[in-house]
Specification:
By secondary structure, this protein is of the alpha/beta class. It has 2 domains: 133 residues, no CATH class; 125 residues, 2-Layer Sandwich (Nucleotidyltransferase, domain 5). 38% of the residues lie in helices and 16% in strands. It has 9 helices and 8 strands. A 5-stranded mixed β-sheet has the order 6-5-4-7-8, sandwiched between helices. The protein has a 3-stranded antiparallel β-sheet with strand order 1-2-3, with no helix packed on it. Strand 5 and strand 6 form a beta hairpin. The chain starts with a helix and ends with a helix.
Amino acid sequence: MQEFIDQFPDEEACRHYLAKVRWGDAFVCPFCPSHAAWNIRRGKFRCTTCGRDVSVTARTVFQYTRIPLRLWFQAIWCLVSQKHGASALGLSRALGIKRQKTGWHLLRKIRTAMIRPGRERLSGAVEVDEVFIGGVRPRIGGRSSLGKTLVLIAAEDKTRTIGRIRMQVIKDASFQSLSSAIEAMVDTGSTLHTDGWLGYRGIERKSYRHIITERNPSEPGNDPTPLVHRIASLLKRWLLGTYQGGVQSGGLQSYLDEFVFRFNRRTSRSRGKLFYRIIQHMTHATEA
């Protein structure tokens, strides 16, 4: 934290860092091929070729924001430096933000940057299963959600450990919904391990190898998809511990994205690198 404070003492330091992440060692004009510009005022550059003024925040998540960059940076650092993240209320209290809505806005924007556009899909041996997220409600047979949210979880099986994971909210457990989500999360040619649910039957037609493990009723401890259920348990514990379970179904995907970001980088010892990645994604998130 002390190093962070020393590196970003004011708005000018934040703007300089943002320009470095976005353009590297040389300015790049978004309107022409020029790499030369005059630094005319705070965060503003004038292209020497086309004469247009370019802001360091233009075409980024930070464009048009009224929130100081230093506050954005502090919020991002709070999220990446804490193992379990922070709620909007907790973040508002930590940063001295008077309006909780502002803290919620910061979190929502930061979460969108936790997913890199065009990221690689999972590959190799991948375990896939659906879980219900939501409070305790009466249930009927089958896989009807009854007010809960159905989430498809995919996890790379690395034999002795869990590799990367992906999560996606799905509307039902039909073949159409499951296959569409799987195609978005898992690379073709991979080996899918699922239970015997009928919704997975025929997935091999999508260029996957499919291995079915039927649940044995005579063995209560037998779990066809143990990796997925381990991840689901960690997810529910995280939602309950960090957000006290107060996550609405409409915004659940953004929370899943944050959990995936944290889980896939769980072995990283460099908080600064995680901070850099989020700034990098936020810088290029809305560029053409």
